[in-house]
Write a structure and sequence with these properties.
This protein has 26 helices and 16 strands. α14 runs parallel beside α17 (377-390). The chain is an alpha+beta fold.
């Protein structure tokens, strides 16, 4: 393994450039670029402060590996498949570790981020809170760039002498600069020359499969890649596994994108992990999600051959869930794994799937009880085994299997009341409660919002004396403010500008009743006694509303000892 060094300006010029010793490219094994504008700006601040960038890992090869270009003008609507280059047996260098840093440098020095270019405040240079940034960078639209902000790439890729650059900067200031400011300009140009153009600041380790073809074969490089990334959070497991799949399946990326786009049209967040795990289950490889399975002979070929049927089964189950159950959005589905046994039934026994009953009961009990939380591989395998034996969906048998795995299907009263603001299951409960709300708006920010009946800002201001310390303390802590009985679901319009906001219930409810009638109270299970809507009756309101909620969901709230379906 060789260690190489380059200046930043040089390394950027090698990206996507086949004429520069084959050029640097991204292999299909790499996930999408995920850094934000702020992360990119912090990287450039670090470079200016001469902090190390960390070593990159490069694979030099002539293998016909699918690879893609680095993106210069990045925006959120881009598809990776648009950047693939034709596979060839020419010399190339594939970046195995360091994509985010190189891609950030390329965007900042050669491209743009959502139509904005990287700019530098040439008069910065002093540490500033809260993030301890010294050299200020930000992405700006062309019309926004005014002194002291300058387009950073113009300072890097220029043939002008330093004196000419200084004169141009002083002229663009439109005013006389102080001696301190002029010194800053002078110092900053020196720092830029040193850190970006002169110092070999980029170090990379090179796996050379051209000079050492026996040492670094494709499988070995994949293993190096996995080990290099296993200690951090740079890559999801699906990125590694999918790279193995797509190396033998030319259309894998495109087909995966099409499926995920379709699944997520209505506000869900299905990902590669779910799809690949489901593939393994459907082709009889079990639910455990591991690299070795994708290396087994026939696994990738089987997924490719059966892809249309697999994708169709996943889509059919989601369509059923959306149309026939109470789950209308991602937030109401705290565990996507609960769907895997249903997809298996649909895939293997379509007629039985069409006749299946109590699927909504299965989903509700499993999700509220947390049956598929943690690592549910054993449960999935056990359910698949039962479905294979019976070739039908019997909810009582399904629940029996789940209980043999020591998983809960019950919703004890204590747990039920813990489903308050911020809990993982409150959206699921509210999807059951509020069936008429639109959970698939065209604009994602128009999703229904969970709000406090008695606003937090008001409850936080109520103080009582602590007899032990003789100090005034907050009467209602977060658990009491956020409890289920103080939560309601509002439309974006209700909770937006001019809506409820911090309005107390004694003002909000009369206003809504005047517009919607008394059914508004019934919809939200609000005690009709107006005296309970006053802030000094908060605790009485909670007691009264808990009774209404308990009556509404009495079929779900079961004492843990007696809980049975």
């Amino acid at each position: 393994m060789k260690n190489q060094k380059q200046t930043i300006r040089k390394i950027v010029s090698v990206l996507n450039n086949a004429d520069e010793d084959g050029g640097f490219w991204l292999p299909n094994i790499q996930r999408p670029f995920v850094w934000s504008e702020d992360q990119i700006c912090k990287l450039f601040d670090s470079i200016m402060r001469e902090y190390p960038i960390s070593t990159l890992l490069i694979w030099k090869t002539t293998s016909t590996i699918r690879h893609r270009k680095f993106i210069d003008n990045w925006n959120s609507s881009l598809r990776l498949s648009d950047f693939y280059v034709p596979e060839d047996s020419k010399k190339k260098c594939l970046v195995l570790d360091g994509q985010q840093r190189l891609q950030s440098l390329y965007i900042g020095l050669c491209g743009s981020f959502e139509g904005k270019e990287l700019c530098f405040d040439v008069l910065s240079g002093d540490l500033s809170a809260p993030d301890e940034i010294k050299y200020k960078f930000r992405f700006c639209y062309a019309a926004e760039i005014m002194f002291p902000w300058v387009k950073f790439k113009d300072l890097i890729f220029t043939t002008k002498k330093k004196r000419e650059m200084l004169d141009n900067l002083k002229t663009s200031a439109g005013r006389a600069l102080s001696e301190k400011e002029q010194n800053k300009l002078d110092d900053h140009l020196d720092i830029i020359d040193r850190t970006f153009k002169m110092d070999e600041a980029v170090t990379y380790q090179e796996l050379d499969s051209i000079d050492n073809p026996a040492l670094y074969k494709e499988d070995d490089v994949v293993e190096v890649f996995i080990r290099a990334n296993s200690g951090g959070t740079k890559l999801g497991k699906s990125d590694l596994l999918f790279s193995l799949l797509s190396s033998s399946w030319e259309e894998a990326d495109k087909k995966m994108e099409v499926l995920l786009d379709s699944l997520n049209t209505h506000g869900f967040e299905f990902d590669r992990d779910f799809v690949l795990k489901t593939c393994l289950v459907l082709i009889g490889q079990g639910a455990k999600y591991e690299v070795e399975k994708f290396r087994k002979e026939g696994v990738r070929e089987s997924i490719e051959a059966k892809w249309n049927e697999i994708a169709g089964a996943i889509q059919a189950v989601l369509d059923f869930v959306r149309e026939k159950t109470f789950i209308q959005c991602d937030k109401a589905l705290p565990s996507y794994n609960v769907l895997v046994p249903l997809v298996y039934l649909r895939y293997q026994y379509e007629d039985s799937w069409k006749k299946a009953k109590d699927v909504d009961t299965y989903l509700l009990r499993c999700l509220l009880g947390g049956a598929f939380s943690g690592v549910p591989d054993n449960i999935i395998d056990a359910l698949v085994k039962k479905l294979t034996e019976t070739k039908t969906f019997d909810v009582n048998e399904i629940f029996s299997v789940i209980r043999t795995q020591n998983r809960s299907l019950e919703v004890p009263e204590e747990r039920f009341w813990q489903m308050g603001y911020g809990s993982s299951t409150i959206h699921l409960l509210f999807n059951v409660w509020y069936r008429s709300f639109n959970y698939t708006p065209a604009y994602i920010n128009n999703m229904p919002q969970i709000d406090h009946v008695f606003p937090q800002s008001i409850l936080k201001d109520i103080k009582v004396l602590n007899p032990e310390t003789n100090r005034m303390i907050m009467k209602y802590d977060a658990s009491r403010r956020n409890q289920l009985a103080n939560c309601m679901l509002l439309s974006r319009e209700e909770n937006g500008a001019g809506g409820k906001s911090d309005m107390p219930p004694e003002e909000w409810f009369p206003k809504r009743i005047a517009e919607e009638g008394p059914d508004y109270l019934k919809k939200h299970l609000i005690p009709p006694d107006e005296a309970l809507w006053k802030i000094d009756r908060f605790e009485d309101f909670i007691v009264a509303r808990r009774k209404l909620i308990q009556e509404r969901f009495k079929s779900l709230i079961v004492p843990a000892v007696k809980a049975k379906i």
